[in-house]
C-alpha cells in the first residue's frame, strides 16, 4: 500500500510516501509538518527512508524521522548530510512488497533518483515529472534542462506504457494513463 502522508498539508512540503508491506519504507520525508505523528498513526516501525533527492522540502523532516524510528537513510549521494547509504544507478531496492529499480535522473538536482517497479506498475518520480506534462525546475542550483530532458527520456524508455501509478514529489499522484503524463513532460520540457 502507498499512502501520501503529506496529503492535505498546507505548509510548503514535498509529498512523503509511506510504502507498507514486507518492508515499511518512507519515500521522502517532506518538511514543515508532523510526519512522525502521521507515521505513528499508520505503522509501529519503519525499515528505511529512501530519498528521491535532497532538496530541503524533501528532507526537512529527515532528522525527526530518524530520531523517532532509528532508521537508516538511503539516497544517491552518501556524501550529503543525512544520507547513510548509497543507492547506485540501476540498483534494486525493496519498497513494501515489490522490488524497485533506482534510476539516476539528474537535471533537477544532481542526486535525483526515480524508483520504478515493473511488477507493481509504479513509478516514484520525485521532482522529475508531474501530472499534466509538468516537469522539474531547472533554475535552481544543479539544475540543467538538457540533463532533465535526457533523464525524462531515460525513464520513458524504461517504464511500461501500461504504468498504473505515477507518484510525484508535489501535487496529486496520477492513476489514469500515467505514462501519457510522462510522455507529455518529455515534450513540454523541450518546448520551454
TrEMBL record:
Domain Metallo-beta-lactamase: residue ranges: 13-170
Keywords tagged on the record: Hydrolase, Metal-binding, Zinc
Cofactor field: Zn(2+)
Xref: InterPro entries: MBL_Glyoxalase_II, Metallo-B-lactamas, RibonucZ/Hydroxyglut_hydro
Gene3D superfamilies reported for this sequence: Ribonuclease Z/Hydroxyacylglutathione hydrolase-like (3.60.15.10)
Top-rank lineage group of the source organism: Archaea
GO molecular function: hydrolase activity; metal ion binding
Pfam families per record: Lactamase_B
UniProt name for this protein: Glyoxylase, beta-lactamase superfamily II
Organism, as annotated: Natrinema salaciae
Lineage: Archaea, Methanobacteriati, Methanobacteriota, Stenosarchaea group, Halobacteria
Amino acid at each position: 500500500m502507498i499512502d501520501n502522508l503529506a496529503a492535505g498539508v498546507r505548509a510548503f512540503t514535498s509529498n512523503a510516501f509511506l510504502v507498507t508491506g514486507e518492508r515499511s519504507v518512507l519515500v521522502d520525508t517532506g518538511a514543515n509538518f508532523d510526519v512522525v505523528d502521521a507515521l505513528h498513526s499508520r505503522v509501529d516501525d519503519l525499515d528505511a527512508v529512501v530519498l528521491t533527492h535532497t532538496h530541503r522540502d524533501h528532507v526537512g523532516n529527515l532528522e525527526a524521522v530518524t530520531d523517532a524510528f532509528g532508521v537508516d537513510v538511503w539516497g544517491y549521494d552518501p556524501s550529503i548530510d543525512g544520507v547513510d547509504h548509497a543507492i547506485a544507478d540501476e540498483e534494486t531496492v525493496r519498497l513494501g512488497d515489490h522490488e524497485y529499480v533506482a534510476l539516476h535522473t539528474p537535471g533537477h538536482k544532481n542526486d535525483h533518483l526515480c524508483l520504478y517497479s515493473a511488477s507493481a506498475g509504479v513509478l516514484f518520480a520525485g521532482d522529475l515529472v508531474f501530472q499534466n506534462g509538468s516537469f522539474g525546475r531547472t533554475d535552481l542550483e544543479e539544475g540543467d534542462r538538457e540533463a532533465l530532458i535526457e533523464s525524462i527520456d531515460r525513464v520513458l524508455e524504461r517504464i511500461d506504457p501500461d504504468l498504473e501509478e505515477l507518484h510525484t514529489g508535489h501535487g496529486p499522484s496520477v492513476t489514469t494513463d500515467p505514462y501519457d503524463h510522462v510522455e507529455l513532460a518529455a515534450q513540454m520540457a523541450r518546448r520551454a
